Amino acid sequence: MHTLLGHTALSDRLQHTASLIGNTPLLPIRRAFVKKGVSLYAKLEWQQLGQSVKARPAFHIIKGAIERGELGPGRRLLDATSGNTGIAYASICAALGIELTICIPENASQERKSLLKALGAELVFTSPFEGTDGAQAEAKALAASQPGRYYYADQYNNSDNWRAHYLSTAEEIFAQTGGQITHFVAGLGTTGTFVGTGRRLLELKPDITLVSLQPETALHGLEGWKDLQTAKVPGIYDPALAHAQKEVATMEAYGQLVHFARTEGILLSPSAAANLAGAIQLARELEEGTIVTIFPDDASKYGEVIDQLFSSIN
Q: What domains appear along the chain, each with residue ranges and CATH number?
């Protein structure tokens, strides 16, 4: 069992962990899509602790809770997740000596469940038919039943979620493009990436265009994405922020996943491929511009999906 470290040691570990979060590379996409006058880039978010974009909000949520005295000795971190945030929480909590309980849909990929267990997280499985909405309901009920035991992070309604991207992701993108970015494109899940990055980029470059992406249908295969027409809308979402919205079909994303692997040599996750598909939709409409999107993670947690996809085309 982990025990929370003393204040000084915990501060030292927080500082060390912070050095492992963010500062991810910006990849120029040169072969998967080519159009004169249009440049397309993607942030490789798996190149940080926890191996996904969720490392940023997970760290800021934990750090904020510790600094406010809401997470301390005798309390466990509790949240609902479809997988990536949970893995980020588990990686960070293991480094800090904090106990963790994750509510997760039973049909999350086996790779994710195995990683969470290996990192020491306690898993509470919820209905596969209710998705992350059901996991959120279970986490809320657990927190209410034992308020002294749990700090309920509530990533879908926690402002530290979007602030993480406001403070880091947007600043990195602006610097890495030399301020030349004209369009930012990202899918909606907790919506923290789009809201936080978009808000700060608008301040840095008021004429930027922000494009949000959603799945084409409520029944989709893009883990982590939400159809906000039918799912519970996160409390941190700002519907007035996007200048435009595009829809991405699951099979369109899978097609881009295969194409990207065979042109750029990188195996993406389905959600990263969906972001790519949405960015390419936009790029085809432009005569010129510099588009940046997010690759939340790679394919390492999606073995079954990748095996099935490539088996079906070989």
A: 7-47+162-313 (3.40.50.1100), 55-152 (3.40.50.1100)
Catalytically annotated residue among 82, 91, 269, 271: 271
Judge whether 91 counts as a catalytic residue: no
Residue with the bigger pLDDT between 227 and 89: it is 89
pLDDT digits 0-9 by tens, 109-168: 788 899 999 999 999 999 998 888 899 999 999 999 999 999 999 999 999 999 999 999
At 15-42, the pLDDT tens digits run 999 999 999 999 999 999 999 999 999 9
Establish whether 35 is a catalytic residue.
no
Whole-number Å distance between alpha carbons of 158 and 161: 6
Residue pair 296/84 in contact (Cβ under 8 Å)? The answer is yes
Catalytic residue among 54, 63, 246, 301: 54
